[in-house]
Structure formats: structure tokens, C-alpha cells
């Protein structure tokens, strides 16, 4: 078995980088969930992977802003293989918040992309150009699921296919169960060789006027094909009215050009002669392996579980989730005047306070990277105790001393679901738990590590279950 490097944090707060942070090695985990205080926020320069493999990045906030004075991305990967971005928050980038190029076997899940800087002085364009773009993505295969993209002028997503060594179109992407809110002049567009585009939920905001979810672009008469499976996608107005139903016909048929009415997917062909091959199919091109919901169910789950949440869900991301739910904006671009689509971090008051917090030495007295209260479990065959600990820390959790009580705000685990909700909590072994509406009280009896299951159902009949951990140890 290859040796693994696990990065855990004893200090939480703001990291202001002076150059690009690039991981180019293998078998590395960046565990932002282990930081104390409010966790990790990175400003200044991007964080990315170059030629890396088997890398996992979880619970980081990367908001470069204008600190560097350069036109830069937020996070990304190039030439990397078997890598995972899970529950990170990225935004405030002048170029794009995320990009993936020449990447293989990648997963980008439950992340948060919001507020790319729009009219912000991009060095490759004339002054005043709008460039508030979310993400340009490619991969073979790339899985992009259960992410929230909000308040962007465009590229939410842009399928940035390229060509293989023989000059044929490449890229295979599985884009499903994402939520996109308050898109500007561009929604999802671009082109790749094969794409599954399934169960995505688009919600217009105050800056939105497009009434389609995906525009496939045919701009180059290169060899090969660009083809898509489009199924179960939906679009709603900011007031919640249906524009594109998830059970509707998803493509216009015929030559697949824009029909003049709301449609999920269509083809914008600018080459002559146009491609003679079929563009849209009614079966997927490859297996997804993602637990897939209807778009309306995915909307609720994404808004309940996305972005950097451990050790806390910060005020910035709470605001974005609330604006998505209510179809509103709080701020306006200071240069563009666009509603919700900002041009400078100062438009929203800048980076919130992330006080420097140092973990007490007693947390991990033996220095093995694992809290001394951990019960030693691995989480499954083939994993280490450190793996089990990091995965537990990545889910919602709290701490309490034996004989004491702790309160759990159950509604914080179900932000996207419709009130009133009914909650149930199971699995307590080292204490007792009582539920009163959306609040649970846990009373600890002895030391141990709880793995609770919190189940809930909402007013519309939707239901879900989420894990919740409680560590019981002295002086918690």
C-alpha cells in the first residue's frame, strides 16, 4: 500500500498566500475539517493540483479576492488523476473559481462556487469586460454532482472539451444533481465528446433572463463527435414558478436549435456544414455511480449539505444559501450594477472575521494527528484509525463532557427542506437524546464517540437522513 500524507490543522484562521499553492505529488489528503475555530480561509492565490494523483481536499474556503493584484483562479486541477474535491467553498476569483484540464477519474462533489468577480479588471480583456465565471471543466471521466453555483455572470458550467492526441474531440463528463442560481448572460455551455447532464436544478435570480439550462456549442469542424444525454433537468423563476419541468421533453428535436421557448438542452451550431451525426441521446453514455435524485429533491439536499461546513458554516455561505432559497440578492456589483453579481469583495463587505485559533496541546498529546478522545475505529476494512477520524470530523458533529448536555439545531441540517419538518434521532449509545420540534438535547453519560442518524421529512413529503457525531470526553 502506498504511503499517504494527511494534512491536519492545529491552527484555524486566514491564510494569506504569496504564490500559487500547487500539489504535484500523490496520496495526499488536505483535511480542512480538522481546523479549530472557524476553520480555514485562504486568500491571495489559488490552490490546485498539477500532475497529482489520489489527492483529496475537503472543507477548505478559497477566496483569493484582489490581494495578489493578479488575474487568477480559485481552485483547480491539471493533468491529475483519481482526485476528489469534497465540500469546499470557492469564490471571489477574477478568472474562474474552478477549472479542470486534462484530468482523469475526478470527483467534484458538494462544493460551493459563488460570487466570481465580474467587472474586475481581467488582464486578458478590455476594461469593463464582464468575466464573473464559475468554472471551466473537463475530464475523462469527470463527475460533478450535488454542487451549488450562485451569482455568476457565466460558465456555470462551461464544458471545456479539448482534443486527444489524434486530434479528436475528448472529454467525458457526468454533471448531475447540481443547483445553479442567479446566472447572468451565460448559463451552462461549451462542448465535450460525451456528456451526461442529469437532474440539475436551475433557478433564475434577479440578474437572470436565459430560459434554458445547457447550450451545446458546435464551433469547430474537428474530427469526432460531441454528444449528450440530457434528462430530468428543470428551471424555476426566482418566485418559484416552473419554466422547465423535470419531466418535460428536454431537447427541441429536429436540428436541435433553440426553439424560442424554455427548453432544457439545445444545440448552437455555428459551423457550415453542420454536424451530420445525432447530438442528443435518450440513454447515458457511461455509468454514473452517483446516488441520483429528481432535480427538485436534489435542490433540497444540495442547499442542506454543500460547501465548507466543518468546523462551522460561515456567514458568507449562509447568506448565499438563503438568497438561493428566497430568490433574492443582498448586494449589487459596484461597477456593473448587476444584482447579486459582484465586482469586488468590498461589494459584500470583504472577508468576514476568521480569528486565529490554536488547538490546545491536550487535544492530540501524542502527536499522531488524531484527537486523543478518538475511539480508534477505522470506518471500514482497509482504512486506518486516522481515516476513520478524518471522515467523522468531516460530517456534522459536536463535543460534550460526561454528565453534561449539548443542544443540536436540527433545522441547520435541513436548510433546503420545507417547513414544518418532523425529526427523529437514532443511534445513541453513550447517552440519551430527546427531540422537541427542531431542537434535540443530548445528555452524555459516559465517554465515547456517538454516530447518530438524524432523519427528517418535510411538508412536501421529502425525506432524508444525515449522520451526526458527538464526542464525549473530559473537559470538552
TrEMBL record:
InterPro entries: Pectin_lyas_fold, Pectin_lyase_fold/virulence, Polysaccharide_Lyase_1. It comes from the Eukaryota. The keyword DNA-binding does not apply. One of its GO terms (molecular function) is metal ion binding. Keywords: Glycoprotein, Lyase, Metal-binding. Gene3D superfamilies: Single-stranded right-handed beta-helix, Pectin lyase-like. This is Putative pectate lyase protein. It comes from Phaeoacremonium minimum (strain UCR-PA7).
